[in-house]
Write a structure and sequence with these properties.
This protein is of the alpha+beta class and 97 residues long. Helix content is 31%, strand content 30%.
Amino acid sequence: MVAAVMAVPVERIEVTVEGDLDLRGTLGISRDVPVGFEAIRMHYETDAPQVSPEQSQTLQTKTEKYCVVLQTLTAPPPIQIEWEGSSSHRDLPNSTS
């Protein structure tokens, strides 16, 4: 979408996201292992033979700026948890606070 808005001639953009996750924590097998991802890596691959170096750099910067997943992970929003059938309600602390 960013390339289209910029009118940059891109033939293909592929994003691969991978992460390190030790399921022993998630499954409750080991209390010493944290629940959740320990690291996340994003790899962008583009096929844009007609793009200038300046356009490429601007595309990279804007793609990262407007990537919903990347921005949510780097600046997590407040999360509110509510249980139906219970009076329990709480707000999770924002990790960037």
